[in-house]
Amino acid sequence: xxxxxxxxxxxxxxxxxxxxxxxxxxxxxxxxxxxxxxxxxxxxxxxxxxxxxxxxxxxxxxxxxxxxxxxxxxxxxxxxxxxxxxxxxxxxxxxxxxxxxxxxxxxxxxxxxxxxxxxxxxxxxxxxxxxxxxxxxxxxxxxxxxxxxxxxxxxxxxxxxxxxxxxxxxxxxxxxxxxxxxxxxxxxxxxxxxxxxxxxxxxxxxxxxxxxxxxxxxxxxxxxxxxxxxxxxxxxxxxxxxxxxxxxxxxxxxxxxxxxxxxxxxxxxxxxxxxxxxxxxxxxxxxxxxxxxxxxxxxxxxxxxxxxxxxxxxxxxxxxxxxxxxxxxxxxxxxxxxxxxxxxxxxxxxxxxxxxxxxxxxxxxxxxxxxxxxxxxxxxxxxxxxxxxxxxxxxxxxxxxxxxxxxxxxxxxxxxxxxxxxxxxxxxxxxxxxxxxxxxxxxxxxxxxxxxxxxxxxxxxxxxxxxxxxxxxxxxxxxxxxxxxxxxxxxxxxxxxxxxxxxxxxxxxxxxxxxxxxxxxxxxxxxxxxxxxxxxxxxxxxxxxxxxxxxxxxxxxxxxxxxxxxxxxxxxxxxxxxxxxxxxxxxxxxxxxxxxxxxxxxxxxxxxxxxxxxxxxxxxxxxxxxxxxxxxxxxxxxxxxxxxxxxxxxxxxxxxxxxxxxxxxxxxxxxxxxxxxxxxxxxxxxxxxxxxxxxxxxxxxxxxxxxxxxxxxxxxxxxxxxxxxxx
Length: 727
Description:
The chain is α+β, with helices and mostly antiparallel strands. Helices cover 30% and strands 22% of the residues. The two termini are 52 Å apart.
């Protein structure tokens, strides 16, 4: 803990003991849920219709979203779930960000308020349906009592209740009476077959107007009285710490107020962003690099490759994540056809349009933050540790954010913690806005790990996998984290573990190694699937060609063996919509992958222009359960494909002597609008509960393009980005 634990006024001794013990190691947590711990000290009150719904005097409905909106469009879907069950007037439904309170807005078994893993809709599906149905029942009961009629004789449509006698009343008319009724714990939910809003094109974004006319509020828009701006000088190499610094010249810069050392570097606090940046440039800092990572990214990748092919240190720990049969039996059989390949993947930056920023105020043991918080629970806990207070005493006002792709939620709440450290030093509740430049985030942030896969596959007499040996070498995202758990790091193996291709293979020997590297890594849009989808799908195409079979028919046969009906349905729909042959002059590649509960199949049309791949048309089919907003699903498939294609074509963060080479988009190339393909989206009909949409469209595009190039050139792709591919 960074500061003594202080018991705020009005907080019970039990709350103080519970949270105090949480901050110093959790010795007294018996009988206390994480949600209780996080909300201790919070004074948030719940309205008559629960924590998710507010109804105004004029009958307008506000849905309280526990999930941040940072471009993915989830607010429309979340609002539609409530509006459908409530039978509210969709044109008068708005969305408001929920306050940070894990007990009220628990997301999953840990009681965390967090937006991630493409889970906003799936996590809220039953929760919000129940809230909407309960609120509807309260209004129906209020109307029945007022009109002295049975509740079953009342219908609700567009926020108006009607009885066969001709009596009508709006939500506003019945608000006072409905608010007095106890919400039913288990209200009747609609049969999805009767939905009139969900699944229609009426479900469009609720934030479009504000983002079009400039009234939408982002962190950079925050202007508070007496507010200061801060920037931080970070070490050029990861793991280095401040040895000494001289702030004399920095303090001479007009507008600079103070310079502070914080755990992650040296902060310059000023009246303006410009003054803060000029002050940072004037700093003289000596760094202690005794524990810094000083290797180049190419050296790290080479060590990963050696491990994957069995040439690494003998004491490296390996963890099996899929194992069945005896691989030695077929691998050693005479005449067996064997396929071997290695695949290498670079570090990737998140490259969000809005770099990291946060506004914080610390007044004694009270903290208020205003910013685009992706993980309110994590940010509350980390802020509380810094100040030495109850997490519930940390107030967070969540704003819109300009993208995340995983970057804004990490275990140490890196940039958030920096802002709180600085605001604590400034004190007296004075607002401090921390601003990270693009260069700060690209050089001192977190990255998608470098990864190497090595596969060795023995084929049976028909050309299908008989024994599959798989080795993955990666840094661990979850190692040492509160969510790490037991067993292999799932973020490194998801997409390989559980693959229908391994299920269809009689003998499997799949293992994972997680060597220690000093580069900070984090989930990146679609996490492990960013590399596992490529390896599995590109390998399957190569196996099919080695067996002399059509890659689509080859997949169909393996899906039949594995019972992968959803994969087959998505593949068939994508192929049907793509048509029998590619556009003249273009090659075609196919890939299918499941992530975050959804199955996505893509058909990509590719040609070479000046030796580089150009992607023209992408046909996507997705099975994501109930499609709440088809328009938004299509938008996510388009965005996911472009984001994944950008990384596949150009994305690479490199290190020289431990220092990141790239600093902005001049060195970290991204897809330009004229390079974006035409993406068509088709949804597999389903009655299942909704599954992920925000990420599953990202990992499929790279292998689909690689398979199109394989068909065109007969050369496999063994390294990304495509610009680094060598024969």
